[in-house]
């Protein structure tokens, strides 16, 4: 015998009921005896509970009731042939009349007791199962409608009654013997007490009904048909990348469901354990998928952690005071007082000093818990040995569950570092003594971030997701996004890295989307769904998404954007930037940034600040980390100046070379911005600071290339005229160099704590002599590379190489 239980969505539409019929028939074709248990149609239990409340408040309930009625009647008309419709409609009509009378009574009384509430809510299961029994019969199944109020006996704890298993067993067995060849269709969730009053088994309790029926008849299997592919690693609504589990032990399923995985109601496992009946969780909307098998054993060849669940809202109750230290009976009194008040304690942590105990309870029970504790310990409170229990709201519990976690060394490390990296603050931790579960209490705002980052770290490692917010979509930004689009597959397969573009902002528009903006189609998405840009709002929205592994990319040259990094670090964003403005501010800011980065455990990478995509800063760091001493750095870090001197040969005047370069787009609109050496000086400043020198920009000595008259010229045109006039000066430099077989080079150097940039006549032995085009070159003379300096050389500008450098930094963020 198999018990097939169908949840709300599985009986919520004509289509899903047709699937149900088909599934039952398939079992019968295989000569398998079947019993069916169904919930109320999706949403009906909630609506009925709402109607009870509204009726008790004197509000109108007729429209709500009519909606439920129409839904059932509609299904009867869709699913049953006309000749079968009348009987079914008549039966339903009777139920709805009773329901209406009940609600009228509630309204007249102006109150609804839990007992009345149970009576009302039972109609959800009565109506759905009654309808389904009729549909099955029309399809040739010998279905018998079974009102579980006659079969499942409970105590009188309305809303969540405790089952008398022995009596229930007997009643169910008797029912089966009276209906030997039939397919019973049992109402889930509802039962009755010894006085015949309707009770319920707690929200989601139809699963439990199925297990009770299964245990009574010694079923071979209980199948829970629902709307997801089985028990999953996390709630798929909260964690997009959750995936279904093949196998779970009863204990794991209990632990997961107790901590919020509502896919199976927690007590369901108990009758199944007692009889060793496997529970299979399957998807009505994807019936061919194998689903999850819950049985005595956990699967062996799989990850140590099985699932992550959460209880979204809990209250934290802390009891503290010197009176507790070493006092043996304290906990006993505390917990029996809570039990007597009917408070369910979700989690307990006690400080090792025994000075305080913190309990997590449902917010609905927090007041009762507090009152019970105050009553139990009134003398201790009076004498000051204990202080009044404090209650804090706004917390959630996340639990990580797995039978094999006992053997997992380093698992908590992974868990806590994932939380730490995402900036999630942990308010309390508890590990079950079975080591089946580690629970952490976090603020409710952080729950989604906590679930996702821990899920990624424990299940999807090695695949990591970086949530990227890209500011600036000019030349470099757009190139970077194109490169990411091209390489995303490669990044996923070879680097186990997934880039989720969670935000884009340029000077005109901005857009944030937790589920990701297309790397290929971001321009259109930005135009279609974007809103007018504002850096402040972009940051606000990015922070509100509260995503784990969040990275802010600055592809602008903006001072405003550079000004927000520190705030971003404080919100657990890593920053990757090609904008060098921030690193060229005061040394004190530069230094403070590094401290803040360390404090929040985030990354801050800006390799492209110096030499675009060339590995300059990283190389310098590697030398320093390995204990080398930097004696001297020499560099040509202005591609434009390099290019100009390389081109300044033959008959062309220097002014003509500059003009050509400007026309080809190699210089800034005002070429003096390059020729002033200021940008070069900024790069030298950053290099010097990276070696540990506390220098300011004005400490960098710049030997000007341009004569004063050129610098002072009021317009670009006037500048060119002055430059033409200065040709004799440049020509004399060129000739002097040529006469001695040398070339002109504008070289930055850092040595003995001094940073300078000067025009040098380099002889053929000089390592920079042979530099061509617009290349950059950097040579590091260190203790180890004393005689033969280490040299990095290559193109030091251009969107392709700069974007590639930013991309490489991004990959480094993921490499923790
Ligand atoms: P039914 O009405 O079929 O009983 P429920 O709504 O009670 O369905 O339970 C199924 C829902 O449980 C899923 O739609 C899913 O959103 C939620 N859920 C929470 N945690 C998990 C989990 N770990 N695995 C699968 N589903 C989960
Ligand atoms: N219909 C009930 C509820 O919504 C029981 C169930 O669905 O299992 O809680
Ligand atoms: Mg359910």
Automatic annotation (TrEMBL):
<dbReference type="GO" id="GO:0046872">
    <property type="term" value="F:metal ion binding"/>
</dbReference>
<comment type="subunit">
    <text>Homotetramer.</text>
</comment>
<dbReference type="GO" id="GO:0009090">
    <property type="term" value="P:homoserine biosynthetic process"/>
</dbReference>
<dbReference type="InterPro" id="IPR049638">
    <property type="entry name" value="AK-HD"/>
</dbReference>
<keyword id="KW-0067">ATP-binding</keyword>
<comment type="similarity">
    <text>In the C-terminal section; belongs to the homoserine dehydrogenase family.</text>
</comment>
<keyword id="KW-0915">Sodium</keyword>
<dbReference type="InterPro" id="IPR019811">
    <property type="entry name" value="HDH_CS"/>
</dbReference>
<dbReference type="InterPro" id="IPR036291">
    <property type="entry name" value="NAD(P)-bd_dom_sf"/>
</dbReference>
<dbReference type="InterPro" id="IPR045865">
    <property type="entry name" value="ACT-like_dom_sf"/>
</dbReference>
<protein>
    <submittedName>
        <fullName>Bifunctional aspartate kinase/homoserine dehydrogenase I</fullName>
        <ecNumber>1.1.1.3</ecNumber>
        <ecNumber>2.7.2.4</ecNumber>
    </submittedName>
</protein>
<comment type="function">
    <text>Bifunctional aspartate kinase and homoserine dehydrogenase that catalyzes the first and the third steps toward the synthesis of lysine, methionine and threonine from aspartate.</text>
</comment>
<keyword id="KW-0028">Amino-acid biosynthesis</keyword>
<keyword id="KW-0547">Nucleotide-binding</keyword>
<dbReference type="InterPro" id="IPR002912">
    <property type="entry name" value="ACT_dom"/>
</dbReference>
<keyword id="KW-0479">Metal-binding</keyword>
<keyword id="KW-0560">Oxidoreductase</keyword>
<dbReference type="GO" id="GO:0009088">
    <property type="term" value="P:threonine biosynthetic process"/>
</dbReference>
<dbReference type="Pfam" id="PF03447">
    <property type="entry name" value="NAD_binding_3"/>
</dbReference>
<dbReference type="InterPro" id="IPR036393">
    <property type="entry name" value="AceGlu_kinase-like_sf"/>
</dbReference>
<dbReference type="InterPro" id="IPR001048">
    <property type="entry name" value="Asp/Glu/Uridylate_kinase"/>
</dbReference>
<keyword id="KW-0791">Threonine biosynthesis</keyword>
<dbReference type="GO" id="GO:0004072">
    <property type="term" value="F:aspartate kinase activity"/>
</dbReference>
<dbReference type="Pfam" id="PF00742">
    <property type="entry name" value="Homoserine_dh"/>
</dbReference>
<dbReference type="InterPro" id="IPR054352">
    <property type="entry name" value="ACT_Aspartokinase"/>
</dbReference>
<dbReference type="InterPro" id="IPR001341">
    <property type="entry name" value="Asp_kinase"/>
</dbReference>
<keyword id="KW-0521">NADP</keyword>
<comment type="pathway">
    <text>Amino-acid biosynthesis; L-lysine biosynthesis via DAP pathway; (S)-tetrahydrodipicolinate from L-aspartate: step 1/4.</text>
</comment>
<keyword id="KW-0511">Multifunctional enzyme</keyword>
<feature type="domain" description="ACT">
    <location>
        <begin position="400"/>
        <end position="468"/>
    </location>
</feature>
<dbReference type="Pfam" id="PF00696">
    <property type="entry name" value="AA_kinase"/>
</dbReference>
<dbReference type="GO" id="GO:0004412">
    <property type="term" value="F:homoserine dehydrogenase activity"/>
</dbReference>
<dbReference type="InterPro" id="IPR018042">
    <property type="entry name" value="Aspartate_kinase_CS"/>
</dbReference>
<dbReference type="InterPro" id="IPR001342">
    <property type="entry name" value="HDH_cat"/>
</dbReference>
<comment type="pathway">
    <text>Amino-acid biosynthesis; L-methionine biosynthesis via de novo pathway; L-homoserine from L-aspartate: step 1/3.</text>
</comment>
<dbReference type="InterPro" id="IPR005106">
    <property type="entry name" value="Asp/hSer_DH_NAD-bd"/>
</dbReference>
<dbReference type="Pfam" id="PF22468">
    <property type="entry name" value="ACT_9"/>
</dbReference>
<comment type="similarity">
    <text>In the N-terminal section; belongs to the aspartokinase family.</text>
</comment>
<dbReference type="InterPro" id="IPR011147">
    <property type="entry name" value="Bifunc_Aspkin/hSer_DH"/>
</dbReference>
<keyword id="KW-0418">Kinase</keyword>
<dbReference type="GO" id="GO:0009089">
    <property type="term" value="P:lysine biosynthetic process via diaminopimelate"/>
</dbReference>
<dbReference type="GO" id="GO:0005524">
    <property type="term" value="F:ATP binding"/>
</dbReference>
